[in-house]
Amino acid sequence: MSTPVQLYLTRLAASFSSGAPEGDGRLGVALTLADGHQYEAGATDQVPLSSLAAPLVYALALEDLGLPRVLERIGTVPTPDQRHLLDVEPETGRALNPLHDAGVVAATALVKGRGGRDRAARLLQLASSLLDREVSVTDTATRAEEKTLDRPRAAAWLMKSLDAFDADPTAVLSDLARLRAVTVSVQEVATIATVFALGGVHPHTGDRVFSDSTARAVTSILASCGLTTRDPLWAMNVGQPGWASASGGVTMLVVPGHLGLALRSDELDENGMSVRGMSALRTLVEEFELHASDVVSSPLSALRSHYRVDQAPSGTSRTAEALHALEAHGEHAHLLELGGHIGFSQVEALVHVIADLPETLETLVFDIRSVHSISAPARRLIGQWIGHAIASGVDVVLADRTETLLDELVATADESVEVNLPPVHREGEADPATYDPTTAAPQFVFFASRSQAMQWCEQRLLARHAPHLFPQDAQEALHSPLMQHLEEDDAALLESMMETRRFHDGQVIRRAGQPFGGIYVITRGEVVLTGQSTGGRRTRRTVLSPGMTFGEMALGQPGRQPSTVRARGEVTTQVLTAQVMYALQEASPQLAMRLWESLARDAYTALAQLVRETGALQD
């Protein structure tokens, strides 16, 4: 099924091709997004790369020599593409910029043979990397392209006469002609543009074709010396880096960080640009909000939601007193849900949001599961802020499905002398003390899910503001949320019917799929509940500590244990076995009824917590 973008481009191509004869003036348009998705409509025939080779040659020269050395031979001065005039710097003979005639041949001369390949082979290798296919050019095509290089040839000999060009002009022009003769489709031109838009990374292969600095330099040249020198209204109508080729009427547009765009139509205007292509491009820029000055999202767009920890609880079963304590002290712990890309402006905006949080803030959670990228400058700023927050006594908690963004943050901090990032305690570490919520010192902690992070924050709040609710011994632990609904005599009778069971670190206590085996009350240690996500991957759901229960969920449909329970460290439990519960229904039906009532109340309490969490996430 066609997507809205594909349908739009198809209509656009048809609209601007109306009245044009087949193969002459018909519009072709292609789009390649940052995630590699491609769209194409209209004319699809291939044309020579021609003038579009200029930014590619410049990029390869930058990769070989670096910007300072390239600037010795090629400037960055915007200049009109005048047909009757060849311009170089009068004093030095240096080319004014790398896109016009003198600059293209100067950049080509800077590219040398390397790794057993001569200059021509390296240029074709670059084209192969960009087009993701093996490129070859016939001698006939090369000679045909050479015949179009009268102005570059004149520029080469002019610079040669001024001692600003030390290579053989004939050889340089032959190698340049071979690259210009490479045939490309409009879709492939869009992909080349996307490589520059992504900082040098290929959107399909994921390979790095150019360094960040090279991609930035080329994109900057396309913005300052590109089509603004041909079209006086380019900055007003389009406002993005771009370049064009008269051969085939191809226009290439780079939208940094987002996409690459290409259009082609043979009919040209007095500036050597496609008439239909430019008209269609202006429409696309307007419809897709691609202009550099369009404000399509504010710096606060990264902030998806913000709430106190008690407004979206973890779902852990707790006593009424514990829930009341969390609500009373919830202002001390807040969660920010972030999404999309985080750059400098987003970090700056988030810092202001955090500054407006209560002065009593003790713990701040960042849910970054929907964040797809963080720029290097933003990572440095975040690292600095985390270090400052920890030093100020505030816990910083990250929740994400993978550790990719965390690892990037840590790597950036390690490389920067400006960032003093404290060690991060990852939830899966062997020593539970490293992320113990009762530890007094502020902590930098990572969890693989939001619920785990929220549970840790709840424990943190209770440890700081209601430590009396933490069981001090096994007897107190027996007064679990399940027991709180029973009369004292009933609770004592049930306790007398329980049996003690101990488990070693890592031992499976209950396995997912087992039938109901009783209700377990933890009196010492912690257990980890895990289940299976989509695709069969094991995911950790939650950690239970003394005073909490497990096993009762198997009482529901289909009567099976929904998750696997493992001991973390040495664990002691008191178990009301299934056999005892069934016997209780025969021997003391009234007590059994009160027990079932207690189980139901506990289940509805957990359901209410889940509803609150879901509501908070949807607000």
TrEMBL record:
Domain of life: Bacteria
Catalytic reactions on record: L-glutamine + H2O = L-glutamate + NH4(+)
A UniProt-annotated Pfam family: cNMP_binding
InterPro entries named in the record: Beta-lactam/transpept-like, cNMP-bd_dom, cNMP-bd_dom_sf, Glutaminase, RmlC-like_jellyroll, STAS_dom_sf
Keywords, ordered alphabetically: Hydrolase
Residues of the Cyclic nucleotide-binding domain: 482-602
UniProt-listed Enzyme Commission number(s): 3.5.1.2
GO biological process annotation, one example: L-glutamine catabolic process
GO molecular function term, any single one: glutaminase activity
Presence of keyword Hydrolase: yes
Database matches in PANTHER family: GLUTAMINASE
Record family assignment: Belongs to the glutaminase family.
Quaternary context: Homotetramer.
Name by which UniProt lists this protein: glutaminase
Origin species: Micrococcus cohnii
The organism's taxonomic lineage, starting at the top: Bacteria, Bacillati, Actinomycetota, Actinomycetes, Micrococcales
